[in-house]
Write a structure and sequence with these properties.
It is built from five helices and no strands. By secondary structure, the chain is mainly alpha-helical. It has one domain. The longest helix is centred in the C-terminal third of the chain and has 15 residues. One of its GO terms (biological process) is methylation.
Length: 84
């Protein structure tokens, strides 16, 4: 399972705004192009482990500052789906 975690965490650290928009549509998360770009800029290059509750919470709080609490909650639900 560790390789699966590494793949997901790597993808989060290299995601683009366009990819976030695509995933948003796929998982019914409302996000604007500007929000997606800002979130992707924040995540890019970060070594985030969404399988660690503390790290995921920290990232979701930053996303809430960028895109608002509703979007952050939706992204957190998506992260949790990835970790199951």
């Amino acid at each position: 399972m560790k390789i699966f975690e590494n793949i997901i965490n790597h993808k989060i650290g290299t995601i683009t705004g366009d990819e976030l928009l695509k995933y948003g549509k796929q998982f019914q998360i409302i996000i604007t192009k500007q929000q997606a770009d800002k979130i992707a800029d924040y995540l890019r290059g970060k070594q985030v482990n969404i399988f660690n509750d503390e790290e995921r919470t920290r990232v979701v709080k930053e996303i809430a500052k960028i895109a608002g609490p509703e979007t952050a909650r939706a992204v957190n639900k998506l992260f949790i789906q990835f970790t199951k």
